[in-house]
Structure formats: C-alpha cells, structure tokens
Write a structure and sequence with these properties.
Distance between the termini: 36 Å
Shape: globular
Number of domains: 1
CATH class: Mainly Alpha
Structural class: mainly alpha
Largest sheet: none
Number of helices: 5
CATH architecture: Orthogonal Bundle
Order of helices and strands: HHHHH
CATH superfamily: Cytochrome c-like domain
Length: 94
C-alpha cells in the first residue's frame, strides 16, 4: 500500500479502535464543555458508539427534546456525527 493510499484509507474510515489514538475529529471538542468527566450532563467517553449516534440523530431530527443539543446536533451531518461518536466510544470510560 502506498503512503497516499494508506492516508486516504485512514481519512475515509478512521473510526473504531483506531480512533482512540487519534486526536478528536472536528466538532468533538465542543462536546467536552458539557460532557467531560465530572459533568452533570453525563460523560460521553466510553459510551457505545451506536448510542451516541442515535442520540445525535434524535436531537437533530427533533424527536428527542432538548434545550440546546437539538441546535448543536443540527451543526453535524451524519458522517460527522459518526466520527464524533466513534472517537468518544474509543476513549473508554474515565
């Protein structure tokens, strides 16, 4: 595999276990303000990826009531939500 192909493969599918060693994807840092360790709103690190994706989808569609998360979730498309969820899930519980 050429270095360029390896980079493309990583960028296209860099989720799951590999996500733990990488920095957060764009948008994930905005989550830690409310969802870091010790927060009253719940920690995201280590939660199941599918659970985070489902929550973001529900907030984005308006089917899950919220005061601010519905507006935040609308800022991410499905691919961005998936990357954010994979990264937080790979962090493991704190």
């Amino acid at each position: 595999m050429t270095p360029a192909l390896a980079l493309l493969t990583t960028l296209a599918g860099g989720t799951g276990a590999g996500a733990a060693g990488m920095g957060p994807p764009p948008g994930a840092s905005s989550c830690t303000g409310c969802h870091a360790e010790g927060s009253a709103t719940g920690v995201l690190a280590g939660r199941p990826e599918a659970e985070i994706v489902a929550a973001l989808d529900a907030f984005r569609s308006g089917t899950r009531p919220a005061t601010i998360m519905n507006r935040i979730a609308k800022g991410f498309d499905a691919q961005e939500s998936q990357a954010i969820a994979a990264w937080f899930a790979a962090q493991g519980p704190r």
